[in-house]
Amino acid sequence: MVSEARVLIAPSVLSADFADLGRQVRAVTDAGADLIHVDVMDGMFVPAISFGEVVVDAIRANTDVPLNIHLMIQEPENLLSTFAKVETDQVLVHAEACGHLHRTVSRIRNMGNPVGVAINPGTPVSAVEDVLSMLDMVMVMSVNPGAAGQSFIPQSLDKIRRLKGIIDQGNYDTQIEVDGGIKADNTAIDSVKAGATILVAGSAIFNNQETIPEAMKGMRGCIASAF
Ligand code: DX5
Ligand code: ZN
User: Fold this and answer.
1) To test the ligand 1 pocket, which listed residue (150, 153, 187, 199) has its Cβ within 8 A of the most ligand atoms?
2) How many C-beta neighbours within 10 Å does residue 38 have?
3) Neighbours of 103 (CB within 10 A)
4) What secondary structure does DSSP assign to 35-53, as a single string?
5) Which run of H or of E encompasses 169?
6) What is the mean pLDDT of the segment spanning 30-43?
7) Within 10 Å of residue 124's Cβ, how many Cβ atoms?
8) pLDDT at residue number 1
9) Could you tell me where the DSSP H helices lie in 50-136?
10) What is the mean pLDDT of residues 49-77?
11) Relative to the CA of 70, which ligand 1 atom is closest?
12) Distance from Cα 171 to the centre of ligand 2, integer Å
């Protein structure tokens, strides 16, 4: 099993106060975010439109931690350089959104950026298996993409376990990321036990019940209790 220090927290700014975005991004950076998860939604792949290039640029200007850019975009291929402006930006595309997944993954790799592929709750592990060895991360969607604040789908844990088995067997250097409904409770603990090493958390980090540092501390404590 990986050590506690290797489990990364990626707060999702989708739940941040957008009227105060710069300050929120700085606050979560200061509180120890390992990555900043950025949800780009196009109104086609998912019903909602979130934000585009201008906002991603503004987020990048307010942090020095790598962006973990979740492209919920139909056929993202033509927009890769719009969002991956620096080589440390991690680019995640959806298996369901790419007609030629291997080609899209290869393009991102050739750009020099870390690359990930996300799969929806209804998409089998086999959709990503043949590109797994090329990926820095595979992202298990533990909610149907499109909105923050949804409940974790328990079947996601089995999917994480199966992916972990394939990654271990192939001796791939691919991390498992989980996105959706992760709180400082069993959803985080069980995901880590199943093999996830990157936890995305939106409403668990940006909410009215606790400060950002308190929420980050709670999530770290939870991760520690998984070991
Ligand atoms: C959902 C997004 C998630 C979302 C997570 O479509 O991809 O990243 O912001 O929010 P929570 O953690 O509140 O489920
Ligand atoms: Zn996301």
Assistant:
1) 150
2) 25
3) 10
4) -EEEEEEBSSSSS-B---H
5) helix 156-170
6) 98
7) 11
8) 55
9) 53-60, 80-83, 101-111, 126-129
10) 97
11) 7
12) 26
Q: What is the pLDDT of residues 182-208, one digit of tens each?
A: 999 999 999 999 999 999 999 999 999
User: pLDDT tens across 165-188, in order?
Assistant: 999 999 999 999 999 999 999 999
Q: Which residues contact 111 (CB under 8 A, 6 or more apart)?
A: 80, 81, 84, 87, 91
Lookup: tokens for 38? 């950025």
Which residue type occupies 51?
Answer: F
Please give the distance, rounded to the nearest whole angstrom, from the Cα atom of residue 37 to the centre of ligand 2.
7
Structure-token pair, residue 143:
């909610």
Q: Whose CA is nearest to atom 7 of ligand 1?
A: 145
> For 68-102, how does the pLDDT look when each residue is reduced to its tens digit (9 = 90+)?
999 999 999 999 999 999 999 999 999 999 999 99
Binding-site residues, ligand 1, Cβ < 6 A: 12, 14-15, 37, 39, 70, 143, 145-150, 179-182, 200-204
| Tokens encoding 110 | 């050739």
Amino acid at 154: P
